[in-house]
Design brief:
mainly alpha, about 375 residues, globular, Rossmann fold, 5 strands
Amino acid sequence: MTEPAPSQATARDVACGIVLGLDPDPAPPAVTSDPAPAPLVALERAVLPALSRPPCLVSFSGGVDSSLVLAIATRVARRHGLPDPVPVTWRFIDAPRAQESPWQNRVIAELGLARQWQVLYAEGDLDLVGPVARRLLTRYGQLHPPNRHLHLPIVELARGGSLLTGLGGDQILAGWRRRPGSLRARVGRLRTHLRHREPDPFPWLRPEVARRTRRAFRREQRAEPHRLAGRISWHLRRRDLTMSRTSLATIAADHDVLAVTPLLDGGFAAALSAHHGRMRSPSRRELLATVADDELPPLVIAPRRKAVFDEVFFRAHTRELVRSWDGGGVDDTLIDPEALRREWSGWPVNPRTAALVQQVWLAGWRNRERSTLEVPK
């Protein structure tokens, strides 16, 4: 069997809707000077190659991570006499929980980038199997994450230039484990768990597959180191993150675009580890403060509500596909089709089935293409 490309999910990844596991040990992040530069300096160095290849677009949502990258890129561009970065923002119609425009407006005004700012509008365009996703799926197959098509129009705008994103901020600057807390708090959580059994997070999987997936998920949660240096190294090895980075780079390279993810830069990881690696389970707020070092506008790293994008990706195209699904197009050694049909009978569907939605659509498209080729002349 042909191994999937690094940017592509395995059959199990698609079925479970979650990517687990680590890549083989990479080389440790290189420290380019001794002593290591401050993390902010390392980030400034990381964005410079993108700024030196204009137009330099920044995928800017208004969230903390993209705001941090945009602020640093603006600071470096003006210091070096380079063109300002061009923030590109999606605005989503009829998706109130994905609304971040107040923060977007404030950050853009703070950085003085109103003239450069490009705003794109989407209604049903970014559905998991909508017109944009279909262009990506038919050209590249399934990529991880399933919402990778969100960046396709931005990459197309950046053709011949570069693209900066905040990819990795949720891992390097936040992580996913709750802070340890007191023994009393942990005992309280255990008692709550024992009183109220949580529903099966993967009810569409075959029972044994679901059991193995739950065990692997808990094992990975427990494996995350508490100290910052170890946690950064661990996150940089996670398949979920490396696949996300590779899929973006693949699409960008295909459009003559240099994709740069400064929050995953080896020099930044090494600098953050060298200066603050002994911190134990730091909060996002603490980490952002150490990185900004009072050099960035406070607004850039101010805490805000995190947007939810389910309303953007689960729209009419997906609704119609799951409603009319005939049970085919999935790996039934991993998936129980009847259980998946039950899961898809309500709305909205479980976000962890996003990759399955795309798998079903892609299987149907390939069958239609094959039928067209087999029609006798």
